[in-house]
Amino acid sequence: SSNITTVTTTIILPVTTPDGAEYMSILVFARLLDKFSNENDTAVMSLRCDEILSHSRVHDHVLEIGTGTGINFACLHINTHITDYVGIEPNIHMHPYAQTAIKRWNVPFKVRLSSNSAIAMNDVESNSIDTIIMTFVLCSVPDPLPKQLLTEAHRVLKSGGELHLLEHVLSDPNVKPMTNSFQKLIDPLWAIIGDGCHFRPIGNYLDQMKTIYSKVDYQNIEVPVLLFLVADAIKGVLTK
């Protein structure tokens, strides 16, 4: 018999309704992300599946911050160590794409999608999550909210639980000065087409977490992509 996945969606309505421009931005971004972020990009998918989302790392009660179009289900659906999954995705235009991915991969564990904010995950209990995963999310979180998001992630993690992340970063001006300058130059436009995504010094946010988490490990890497602007990245593990 085939596996049956129960998908429930929690819709938390925003306090304010997006204006026309903002609505079009998040709608267009959802469509662009679905088109250009897909499992056919074997190099990036290998980085996602084999390093960030390896089966030995992701287990039991799993929370994903920024489910997006559900691209990580391509990695997670064969992970027999996952008991259930909660996906936080405030952009509700992403949810249909994520639900399509869940059905496509015949995900065997229970899934709940929430449009709540990761800054205040009121529908997730403290000390209830074994593994948090987050890929290419923090660029869209405006200052000073990344610190709040990472602190909230600490709250919901069990003792010894881990947050695994992969993020694009602002290039080091001492290593790649031209790339850094160009990133800063186009950042306003990048934010418009990228649903608020900015080139950020993610390592600084992680350093701030060393007083909260028991262990913070990260390293700077290069993502195998054609667009040099987003090649510099960081991968890390934060342990409660």
UniProtKB/TrEMBL annotation:
Q: Which GO terms describe its molecular function?
A: S-adenosylmethionine-dependent methyltransferase activity
Tree of life domain: Eukaryota
List, for all copies, the residue spans of the domain called Methyltransferase type.
Answer: 63-163
Q: Which PANTHER family match?
A: METHYLTRANSFERASE LIKE 7A (PTHR45036:SF1), METHYLTRANSFERASE LIKE 7B (PTHR45036)
Q: What is this protein called?
A: Methyltransferase type 11 domain-containing protein
Q: Which organism is it from?
A: Didymodactylos carnosus
